[in-house]
Amino acid sequence: MTTEQGAGSALASAASLVRPRSATCGPECRKRPCTLREIRYAERELDQEPVLIVWAELSVLSHLLGQPMPVPATWLLDALHRFGSRHRECTFSHAVDAAARARIPAFARQLSAKALAAHVNDAMKGLVSYNGTDCGPEEVGTWSVPRSERDLRALVFGADRPSRLETAVGCSHGEPGWPERMVAAVEDLRGCAWVTEQLAGRW
């Protein structure tokens, strides 16, 4: 066996021992775990494109509220389709995991955060790959959780302060600019009438 073959075998053996970081990790990550550089690249993508955080946050929230899942405008879907598959998978995985994790205290008794995140992640990837998504009203409704008005804020924003949604929107809920910022944040997402009706106002 040559040195190169030995090194390749060692890397393959090491990869087989490393499990995916999350249930939302895609096929590329399952074949070979992402490097730290690739993970940081995905995290920077979210910092630079807050619309991706807004989409992931609202996609998770839509399921918990039993509302339609937002669908990106055609130009955004096309741009995401041009991402490298590993980069897209890693970016979605981090965004969806964070959205689900922050809301665990509000739904842990009713749902599995891992199952919810995996489902939402698959639905987002399906839209980008032009395969559509079977996540219609009936499917979304199976994830909704009972809630009181008092529980709504915890469900909408999660446990982080400020929440990732507020940070991505660029304004905290309750501040004077919140309604306008929230409406502007979903300009490139379709099916968000419930967002402007329920989230842009003050409850």
- What order do the SSEs take from the amino end to the carboxyl end, as H and E? HHHHEHHHHHHHHEH
Beta-strand segment tally: 2
How much is the radius of gyration in Å? 18 Å
Helix content: 55-70%
Average pLDDT: 84
- Count of spatially separate domains: 1
Low-confidence sequence ranges: none
Widest sheet: strand order?
A: 1-2
Q: How large is the count of helical segments?
A: 13
Sheet bearing the most strands, described? 2 strands, antiparallel
Overall 3D shape: globular
Distance between the termini: 69 Å
In terms of DSSP E residues, the strand content is: under 5%
Structural class: mainly alpha
How would you describe what is shown here?
The protein is mainly α. It has one domain. Helix content is 64%, strand content 2%. It has 13 helices and 2 strands. The chain has helices at 3-17, 27-31, 36-48, 50-65, 74-81, 85-102, 104-107, 113-128, 137-141, 149-157, 164-169, 178-185, 193-198; strands spanning 71-72, 189-190. A two-stranded antiparallel sheet has the order 1-2. The longest helix has 18 residues, at 85-102. It is globular and about 45 Å long. The chain starts with a helix and ends in a 5-residue tail after the last helix.
